[in-house]
Recover the amino acids of this structure.
């Protein structure tokens, strides 16, 4: 209860009330904000559900397509794991509102990625390797001692958003629009900044990156 009440008060950014009228104002403001948040959440879930179902159907379809080679099974396991991460991202403690709002689009692009893994496995593996480098760097940076500092966390969220856009560019073949231009050069620059001394993410354990 204390946590919920604290979140409501912080959400409405309201000064501590001094009288009954002030408390009534806080109540009305909180009710309005909560209603808005609920409507927004329902809209996002309405977008996530069908895209998630499409991805699940594709994985089931390819998983049931006869005898699977070891490489095919590895791809399916990897894709299933990533889809689970998207699902869990709805309630992850570090999930930002911006990332949550993008989930329907990310899942729509992920369906294209599943299709690519089945139709053009060699090209898929090449592009997956490109993406893996940046995801690994993000995980390393998240583990740095000062990663939770506001400016560092903001920069890491930016890197994560860039990685998602890069994944869309690699696998969706123009079927899902990008939020902003992204290139390997820009992504590399952002990654280097997040892991450098200047970017305050240096961690000696990960210098072998």
């Amino acid at each position: 209860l204390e946590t919920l009440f604290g979140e409501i008060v912080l959400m409405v950014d309201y000064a501590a009330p001094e009288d009954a009228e002030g408390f009534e104002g806080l109540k009305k403001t909180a009710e309005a904000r909560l209603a808005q948040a609920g409507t927004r959440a329902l809209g996002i879930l309405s977008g996530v559900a069908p895209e998630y179902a499409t991805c699940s159907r594709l994985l089931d379809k390819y998983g049931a397509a006869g005898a699977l080679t070891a490489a095919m099974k590895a791809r399916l396991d990897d894709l299933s794991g990533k889809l689970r991460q998207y699902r869990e991202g709805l309630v992850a403690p570090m999930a930002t509102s911006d990332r949550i709002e993008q989930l329907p689009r990310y899942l729509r692009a992920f369906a294209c990625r599943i299709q690519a893994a089945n139709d053009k496995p060699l090209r898929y593996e090449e592009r997956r390797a490109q993406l893996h480098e940046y995801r690994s760097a993000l995980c390393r940076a998240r583990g740095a001692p000062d990663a939770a500092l506001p400016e560092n966390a903001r920069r890491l969220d930016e890197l994560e958003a860039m990685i998602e856009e890069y994944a869309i560019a690699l696998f969706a073949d123009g079927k899902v629009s990008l939020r902003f231009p992204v290139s390997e050069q820009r992504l590399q620059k952002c990654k280097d900044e997040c892991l450098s001394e200047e970017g305050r993410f240096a961690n000696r354990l990960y210098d072998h990156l």
Q: What stands out?
A: The mean pLDDT is 82. The chain has seven helices and no strands.
